[in-house]
């Protein structure tokens, strides 16, 4: 399959969290198929509408944000570079994941210190940057609408994205924007669904290379074991 863009994600290994996350969003990037949303009693929200924004990206935490391939590179070389990079990195162990509010979004975030993950994500961003085509003027203008700090502006111009390196904050997005007054009630409904599935400790042992199809949906291309 031909892809418009690539990215490097953390995606959970096959199991209850991966299965429920795919169902929650309605898209399984590992199989490249739409899946039915779960029945969540008393939720009070339309799951399909609630998850419309993150659905195309799948259940994941971004390590290297989506990018177009640079001229002179190709997907085969990118896979080889991902394999070599993964082999040079060691697995990361963190305290766990927790359900969190990020402004008007609901997401899973790292519990405790995420410094080792920030360092690993920085290595992924830098290590694969030769494969990234420069951000377009339109992409840069869109990012700048977020009122970036001077440092975020510098990161945008260097790496094509303002929230990398020390500005990186790992998260697994679960919803699109939710009305302020509805975020807390929604989290109360979601906690019983996600809490039993969340890993403690949270260990990252693989990188997942993903590609975006013509419809804007991301698919797993290949998983790479860290330290292999």
General description of the model:
- The structure is a single chain.
- The two termini are 26 Å apart.
- This protein has a single domain (5-132, 170-225), classed as Cyclic phosphodiesterase (Cyclic Phosphodiesterase, Chain: A), CATH 3.90.1140.10.
- It has helices at 16-25, 47-50, 52-55, 75-88, 115-127, 137-144, 150-159, 180-194, and strands spanning 5-10, 27-28, 33-34, 61-67, 92-94, 96-102, 105-111, 171-173, 202-204, 206-212, 218-225.
- The protein is an alpha+beta fold.
- Helix content is 34%, strand content 24%.
- The radius of gyration is 17 Å and the shape is globular.
What labels describe this entry?
228 residues; alpha+beta; Cyclic Phosphodiesterase, Chain: A; four-stranded antiparallel beta sheet; three-stranded antiparallel beta sheet; 8 helices; 11 strands; globular
Mean pLDDT comes to: 95
Q: Which CATH architecture is right?
A: Alpha-Beta Complex
Helix content: 25-40%
Major beta sheet, strand line-up: 4-1-10-11
Tell me the distance between the termini.
26 Å
Q: Determine the CATH topology.
A: Cyclic Phosphodiesterase, Chain: A
Given as residue ranges, the uncertain stretches (5+ residues, pLDDT < 50) are none
Tell me how many strands there are: 11
Strand content: 15-25%
Q: List the total number of helices.
A: 8
Global Rg:
17 Å
Secondary-structure class: alpha+beta
What is the CATH class designation?
Answer: Alpha Beta
How many structural domains? 1
Please name the fourth-level CATH homologous superfamily: Cyclic phosphodiesterase
